[in-house]
Amino acid sequence: MAVTLDSGRSRRGGTRWKPKAEINVTPFVDVMLVLLIVFMISAPLLAPGILVDLPETVARDLPAENEPLTITVLPDGSVYLQETEVPVADLITRLEAVAGTGYDSRIFIRADGDVDWSSLADIMARINAAGFNNLGLMTDPVQQ
Hints:
By secondary structure, the protein is of the alpha/beta class. It has helices at about 25-40, 90-100, 115-130; strands spanning about 1-10, 15-20, 55, 70-75, 80, 85, 105-110, 135, 140. The protein has two domains: about 1-45; about 55-140, Nucleotidyltransferase, domain 5 (2-Layer Sandwich), CATH 3.30.420.270. Helices cover about 25% and strands about 25% of the residues. The protein is elongated and about 100 Å long.
């Protein structure tokens, strides 16, 4: 807190100094600007997910009402539900546990471009047979 001395005239004609309290906000503004820059730089790096090389297509983005469930399939055959690795045999039970009774909830499947089509079709068939009908395949947009 900074203190500024205010000069005022006393009755005897001399100068008398009275303290005037005020807050110096410049250091607070400096700290806030530094924090803003730090968070702006670090926010994109905090995006969770598993690195997948998605195939590129010319499809439009689907509108998203809320965050959908995501199943990721890697080229080595490992399957992830959200960010947790799940054996293919346990995928449906874990999916039902996460989705609850929300069989209409949207499920996005992110498959690497090098994934064998038969294994991807098997995973999609298992999910469909369990009663989840709102499936979508994720791709990257074509870079023009």
